[in-house]
Amino acid sequence: MIDDFDKKSENLRILVYQALKLYETKPLLNLLFDDHIIIRTAVARELQIRGERMIFNFVKKHLNSKKENEREICVFTLGQLGTPEKPFKAQSLPLLLPLLKDRSTDVRSATASSLGHLCTDGMPEHVEQALVKAAKDKSSEVRECIGCALGSSSGSPEALQALKDLSMDTHKEVRGWAKVGLKLLKERKGPKKKTF
Fold first, then answer.
1. What are 95-118's pLDDT values in tens digits?
2. CA geometry: angle at 119 spanning 68 and 133, to 5°?
3. Contact call for residues 48 and 81 (beta carbons, < 8 A)
4. Which domains, from first to last, does the chain contain?
5. Which of 19, 103, 148, 183 is most buried by its number of CB atoms within 10 A?
6. Do 129 and 160 meet the contact criterion of CB atoms below 8 Å apart?
7. Is 145 in a helix, a strand, or coil?
């Protein structure tokens, strides 16, 4: 999974991230599939900030790679591409949805997280329904990500039921992330402040 490395790598990650700011986009695209997770994750984060059409096209082209780590980093990159405006949200959602059924747990987890990130300003009904359906995934890691992602849902009865079910999951981490999702949903649906 993205960012799944030991804490001793923190200094290296900071140095890599700072150095990548000096690169132009095209050479960074070549580093997106680097064998070292620190490099490819830092590259993905730098590309997300830039949010250029060239990046979207490159990631889209490699989204269905035969290599699991390439699919995962492409999904991760799409999840926050062009943050905070997210100019490719409408184009990214239909590309990501099929990957909720990917054979790789890491890809499915990254997909659920990416859908949640992309939809913080509103989740289309078809995305919400796909996440609700995927909430029964056999992987606890995927269910964790779905629990958090559903915090961006409409709060429909189906989404609320999925979150409640996840909050009673047999895995502690799933329960924790489902509670985060419920809290996010509650904060978004909370009382509106009056303006005068």
1. 999 999 999 999 999 999 999 999
2. 65
3. yes
4. 12-118 (1.25.10.10), 124-188 (1.25.10.10)
5. 148
6. no
7. helix
